[in-house]
Write a structure and sequence with these properties.
Blueprint lengths: L6 H25 L10 H13 L7 H32 L1 H14 L8 H8 L4 H25 L2 H9 L4 H36 L7 H10 L3 H33 L3
């Protein structure tokens, strides 16, 4: 059996990977194969990043753009989870609701979130409703699917035992179905969070007047590659932080549900 690397080894390997990436990046950028305006060096990007933090660009500083993006994202993701998880659980519990909702849901969930961008621009302009709609369209399907599958995987004997003791549908859902589905729900929320963040960035390329995506568009319009790269780094860092946080929650919940 292969030994898993410890924390120190993992950190060292991660640092080595980043060092290799930045070394290749610096080498290609400094070689002159591409103009610095097309591929700036890491130091150029770092200098630009510090300037964006200090001085407004496209109306706001970098942290203000990032805060606007995160605010939209949290609203859209919370709305998707608040509607999608209960809907998935109810579909898994009530057969008639499953029969009514599933055909429409299966038809809609394969539409890419970016396909809703024209509608969001027409309906909401540059208001907050457009990005929330697009985030919702990306984050909603995994919430429904994970909750539905979790409900279907709950041990039928537990449900029957609760019903034998006189528990009604609402009590069974609250005390048996939801706890039993929680590991699957958390896994789905992790997928949903990533898709929602990716959808937000796509929305901000078109239908907003502030945010990291908007910052990147304005940087591209000004032929400022370093600004575009700063936006990409910010997007990746926040997405990674969201995934790490949800991965931690997922491990904790699954550890509680695993047999002793």
């Amino acid at each position: 059996m292969t030994r898993r690397p410890g924390i120190a080894e993992t950190a060292a390997l991660t640092a080595a990977g980043f060092a290799f990436f930045f070394a290749v990046w610096w080498g290609v950028a400094a070689s002159g194969w591409l103009p610095r305006a097309v591929l700036p060096t890491p130091s150029d990007v770092a200098t630009t990043f510090m300037a964006l933090i200090r001085d407004p660009f496209a109306g706001y500083t970098f942290q203000q753009h990032l805060a606007a993006s995160i605010g939209r994202y949290l609203m859209g993701f919370a709305l998707a989870a608040a509607i999608g998880v209960p809907l998935g659980l109810l579909m898994g519990w009530f057969r008639i609701l499953d029969d009514v909702v599933s055909p429409l849901f299966e038809a809609v969930r394969f539409i890419a979130p970016l396909a809703w961008v024209p509608f969001a621009a027409l309906w909401f302009g540059t208001g907050i409703g457009g990005p929330i709609m697009i985030i919702f369209s990306g984050a909603f399907p995994p919430c429904v699917v994970s909750a539905y599958r979790g409900a279907k995987l709950v041990d039928q004997r537990l449900i029957e035992a609760a019903q034998t003791h006189g528990a009604g549908s609402l009590r069974v859902i609250a005390e048996v179905l939801v706890p039993g589905s929680l590991p699957s729900i958390i896994s789905g929320l992790r997928v949903s969070a990533g898709l929602g963040w990716q959808s937000l960035v796509g929305a901000e390329l078109i239908v907003v007047s502030a945010g990291v995506g908007y910052l990147m568009v304005q940087g591209q319009s000004n032929l400022a590659t370093a600004i575009v790269m700063c936006g990409m780094i910010g997007i990746g860092a926040v997405g990674f932080a969201i995934d790490v946080a949800l991965r931690f929650v997922e491990r904790r919940i699954k550890a509680q549900w695993s047999p002793a």
